[in-house]
Write a structure and sequence with these properties.
Length: 224
């Protein structure tokens, strides 16, 4: 697997600080699983963050913060964010096949065995349920060979990891393992390669934003 497109530094910093919405952190974890270069960069940011913390004088916690932190670290809660916690560097085995290891416990190991739902002409989806209170939405999209998705923006951060096939847009060509780390200003018009379908894992910052994206993408296709 040759990876050309990586997580950007802001995303890695957000991940290191634990500030990335869970859906985006999940896609980042799946990329980290296959990308030694981003794992190295994340390790450096973690060390930098740790070093900075050591030089900050302790301050009393504000009202309620210690309780909120205690509740976050309660076992139940931590268990409910397994994708986020793995972050690619704690897992022992390597990803085999098309499904990244952090994702396997949620969808198994075969993309073809999933119950795909029709979403639009040429596009099917499989929604991945995140634990309640998770921020953002996570889904797989399966787009037919040669399909062009009309020019659109996103209205929020979006992370896309390619699992099968490839597409290209003005940012380059994206194949398996590549991640498209788009901020809300980025507009693009992706076109799937002619010789095969493309399956990608997509996280959007807020669930509602996917609907906005969807309507913008589908409007030219369906005339709604
Ligand atoms: Zn990378």
């Amino acid at each position: 697997m040759t990876i050309t497109h990586h997580l950007d530094e802001a995303t890695l910093m957000g991940l290191s600080a634990g500030a990335l919405p869970e859906a985006l952190a999940s896609v980042a974890a799946c990329h980290l699983d296959v990308c030694p270069s981003c794992r190295k960069q994340l390790g450096e940011l973690d060390m930098l963050g740790g070093a900075l913390l050591e030089h900050i004088d302790p301050q009393p916690l504000s009202d309620g913060l210690s309780e909120r932190m205690a509740s976050y670290f309660r076992d139940d809660n931590v268990r409910s964010f397994p994708l986020h916690r793995t972050r690619g560097r704690h897992n022992n085995g390597k990803t085999r096949g098309e499904v990244p290891k952090p994702l396997q416990r949620f969808i198994g190991t075969s993309l073809d065995d999933l119950q795909w739902q029709w979403l639009a002409p040429g596009i099917r989806q499989y929604a991945i349920k995140l634990p309640d209170e998770s921020r953002g939405s996570l889904r797989l999209l399966r787009i037919k060979a040669g399909m062009r998705i009309p020019e659109h923006g996103h209205g929020g951060s979006e992370l896309t990891l390619i699992l099968r096939g490839a597409y290209h847009d003005r940012f380059g060509r994206f194949g398996p393992g590549d991640v498209a780390d788009l901020d809300e200003d980025a507009e693009h018009e992706p076109r799937v390669d002619k010789d095969g379908e493309c399956i990608c894992l997509v996280a959007t910052e807020e669930a509602a934003r996917f609907k906005g994206l969807l309507s913008r993408v589908l409007q030219p296709l369906t005339g709604i």
